[in-house]
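Page 42, continued from yesterday. The earlier attempt failed because a stray header line got pasted into the input along with the sequence. Redoing it now with the clean sequence only.
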Amino acid sequence: MNVAKLADYRKPQPEATERRVADTDDGFIMIAMQLYEELIGANLTRNQAKVVHAVCRKTYGYKKKTDRIADSQLAELCRITRSKANVAKNELLAMKVLVKEGSKIGPNKNISEWEIPECTQIGNIVTKPGTKSVTKQGTQSVPETVHTKDIIQNIKENTPIPPEGAVAQQEEKPKRATATNPQFDRERFKQTWNSKADKFGLPKIISIAATTEKGIARLYKSHLKHCKETKRQPRDIDTFINGYIEHGYTPSRWAMGENPEGKRYGIDTALTQKKIDEIISQEP
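This time it went through. Structure tokens are written below.
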């Protein structure tokens, strides 16, 4: 007769798992705050974001500006397929978020050159300016700004009533207004900046890039917040942003070229949140 042993009923002990803790002693990346903030807020797909961070790791992580990085290396680091890594990399190069020097690639520090499609999300409304409309035979066109509630309401309003009753014509509800960036005199702003650039030997602007426009919106939003906290009447956007550039912002020596690379920094440096807070907080 077989005798059951106590060990037969004991549950196997779980294997010890290694505790992983990130530590700068194991290595770290030095990356400019402005570049990092733009990467955080950039309208990138999931794979694009993974790849651009992987490129930062493979370059800045070894104190290099650019390097030869195989698609297989990106795929392994991003935990995606090699083909998806290649597609995302080429899209980032096309948007000038990454730059290519021969067979080497790296992050483009000149964020004013980035050409990323705009995307603004407000609640569950998503707007994508510049998106091409796709129409098929027998399919109704959908506007670029799509709201689920509006679609449901549209279906209800256009559903015919059964034959017993008369068709009631319902009044069309007014469309909900979507928030937009504050409007400002673009030509006046360019002239104001270029006058400042002439004075201090900084890069001029021919057109206002998307990154600069975001900075202007961020600047005016900070002004409104400051006025609310100090219980003051805000100024109109043109008066404020031009006054900020003409009288508030003074470039540092670093921005004027006294840095290891001898680079002169332009409008986007004047519109960083750190610089905005520094100047607005000193307003009388």
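Notes: Residues 120-148, 165-171, 174-180 have pLDDT under 50 and may be disordered.
Reminder to self: strip header lines before submitting.
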